[in-house]
Write a structure and sequence with these properties.
mainly beta; OB fold (Dihydrolipoamide Acetyltransferase, E2P)
């Protein structure tokens, strides 16, 4: 059994393994820099280290027309080895114990193929599973794979 961090991006709920999370901070004090990379949000001074911040809603293609309360918006600092990168999410919800078979959705990859948001399909190569939590679907993603993609595409 592992622990997952549940967060919201747009209208959807996502989860990542808590072991990949260094900490969660307020969405504030970013230094914005122009970039061709749509998902790049800016830089953040994290304990004397300058880290890149990426916008998760832009990466997942799930931007929502509903205005997000800026007080709910958070940056999840993700660690992958010695690399620290931040991702902006609309809201952090809870930590969940993953591994209960009653919460898993069978044939998850087939079901995922039917999901789309604004004519963009979910990119399945970083989706690990789908979880049924309190009657809602939570998409369990590999946050380290997403970070690797962001860094590979980064022009800064």
């Amino acid at each position: 059994m592992s622990k997952l961090l549940i967060f919201k991006v747009g209208k959807s709920k996502y989860a990542c393994n808590i072991k990949d999370v260094d900490r969660i901070i307020k969405y504030e004090n970013l230094t914005y820099v122009p970039s061709k990379q749509v998902s790049f949000e800016g830089f953040y001074n994290h304990e004397g280290r300058v880290i890149k911040i990426f916008n998760m809603s832009k990466r997942l293609g799930v931007e929502d027309d509903t205005p997000i309360k800026s007080t709910n918006r958070k940056i999840i600092i993700v660690k992958d080895g010695n690399v620290l990168v931040g991702i902006v999410v609309d809201e952090v919800l809870e930590v969940f114990n993953y591994g209960d078979q009653n919460n898993k959705i069978k044939d998850n990859k087939e079901k995922l193929n039917t999901f789309k948001d604004k004519d963009k399909y979910i990119d399945l190569h970083y989706v690990k599973d789908m979880i049924l939590l309190n009657g809602e679907i939570v998409i369990y993603i590999s946050i380290t794979k997403i970070i690797a993609i962001e860094l590979e595409e980064s022009d800064l």
